[in-house]
Amino acid sequence: MSAVASRRAFLTGRLPREDDSVKRPPGAARENFHDLCTRCGDCVSVCPEDVLAMDDAGLPVFQPQQGGCTFCGGCADACKTDALSLDRFAEWPWRAKVSDTCLSANGVSCRVCQDSCDQGAIRFRLKTGGRAEVNLDLASCVGCGACSAACPIGAVSLERYQPATVEVRE
Ligand code: SF4
Ligand code: SF4
Ligand code: SF4
Q: What are the boundaries of the signal sequence (predicted)?
């Protein structure tokens, strides 16, 4: 942050928010995670799926490329502060997104992501020329990341999900 931006943040009391692309463990406090986390690493140690790691700042991050989260709650149980809480597991904001480098979309048969998804959230829509396009059901996707880990070319990422807002008429 520049000196001017830093001074403005200080004067307005608005400190910079964490980069929205950083994936903290499930149940992470949204606003004050940096303050609450003691950097003990207990959540990383207990994760049975080995999908958590410490980042350069010494804070835990979810790494979907390592495997899927089962939402077992072990990390939140191990956390001695309110940095992680089971009460916030339902706020998990991530959902799968398939890039246009997908093998099937380019005419190479592959269904690895579909096979890895226990939620049945991935279907394929057949196209011309032997291609098939992923049809992701966002209502079924829980953002576990298993498909991301399974994709042989890294074409699946987890992105922050913004549900469409519904306009309510008075
Ligand atoms: S919920 Fe379970 S599988 Fe997921 S990150 Fe926490 S400890 Fe690991
Ligand atoms: S267990 Fe809690 S306090 Fe310890 S590193 Fe994980 S989130 Fe931070
Ligand atoms: S992230 Fe979504 S689409 Fe991918 S395996 Fe998990 S539930 Fe299925």
A: none
